[in-house]
User: What shape does this take?
Amino acid sequence: MSSKTQQNNNILLAILGFVTVVVIVGLIGFFLLDRDPEIIQGEVEVSEYRVSSKVPGRILELRVKEGDYVHVGDTLAILDAPEVRAKKTQAQSAEDAAAAMSDMARAGARQEQVSGAYQLWQQAKAGLEIAQKTYERVQRLYDEGVMTAQKRDEALANYKALQAQEKAAKSQYDMAMNGARQQEKRAAQAQVTRARGAVQEVQSYLRETVQISNVEGEVSSIYPRVGELVGTGSPIMSISVMSDLWGTFNVREDKLNGLKIGDTFTAFVPAFNKELKMKVFYIKDEGSFAVWKATKANGQYDLKTFEVKARPEEVFEGLRPGMSLVIKE
Assistant: This one.
């Protein structure tokens, strides 16, 4: 009986030992394996400037290639736009014609026209003097009773007609002397201004055929090849503004831990095996499409994702777009 009891005790001890080992292994797994720190991974991004032209044209020359570092004012590409050059010729011709009309309006009538109008006026004056003397002579004879009323009336009518003719000739002479009216001069000058504006517009389009850099950075992409056509506003190349780098992270809201704009944190850069201090400047939710998990089925709530952007607080040499950034909790 004692032997059987001893055997049962041994079996019980073995079972207890096995259970103890399982519990110890479970505890080790809980405290060690499940306690690995969670990480949030982000990516370095950069501002991009897209080079494009206001006018369509054919790529005549590319002065840079991908990877080149360019400065403000550097020539990037040259386009060929013969239609714009033709429009410039048309606009310049219209400006020349408008300027000629304006000069004509300011100068007034030609000297020959002024002289002709003066001669006609003098001729009308001479005729008026003769008509006046004739009328006065006929009037005296009529008063003496030796001239009929009919003759007196004819002389008077002729006198008044030549008076009107003399006034008309004088007006023509005055108009020739004064030249165009002020309204006509202003209208002619306005046409010149309009034509000059058209020339300036075409010249601005011509400047677009030579694309220069307005920013300093690295040429990241070139889209067309030499000889290809590009349309109005079509991108020719992209320039990465390397002085404006930031990191973008997608963070579940329960991992934000009160993070707000202006806060700083430390991110690990695997490419350099170094840490980098960053400052948050942008936080925004990514909408319903970014819900991580729907937990309403078990009585909890949905967890959404927020996009967090942060800039390095100091210059980090060698940091490039696309590199990974890691935040360890």
